[in-house]
Write a structure and sequence with these properties.
It is built from eight helices and seven strands, in the order βαβαααβααβαβββα. With about 190 residues, the chain is an alpha/beta fold.
Amino acid sequence: MNDKLTGGFALCGSFCTFKTAIEALRELMPLYNIIPIMSEAAFSTDTRFGTAAEHTGQITRLCGREILHTIAQAEPIGPKKLLDFLLIAPATGNTISKLALGITDTSVTMAAKAHLRNGRPLIIAVSTNDGLSGSAEHISRLSLRKNVYFVPYGQDDAAGKPTSLVADFSRLGETIAAALDSRQVQPVLV
């Protein structure tokens, strides 16, 4: 093992964001040891944005290790203190809402719960069509939680999808570094 910090990189089912997320993962690989995590849906669903096999294959090759994709695989993250930080990118409105309400029924929500018990940073890269409607309350709740940080985000198509929010994936590295220093990158809303 090298002296790099270890981060979790968790992907949820915002499939339209996978290409951007995987490119961001590629850029983080030289800086950190990465443990890949995928929600069960993200791990197994074929969509118009690519097949599950294509996505999981790319991620496995990049990280050089198997993807954690079950609750049982994600649970040891906490007791074993496996991660220095956990990044959920993309974080869907569904996952954000579950985290805000304490619901642990996927590999990603279990990873977050297990990780947060150690008082280490959880970084969220929002990607949801209902960020300014149904998920707004839950984004706000999480923004008040200790050790939870957001990658700066904004509307991705204000005219066509007025309630949609997406993180600025080009700022993942900056946000991780700040979160490791217990700081929220500002401005959060872009």
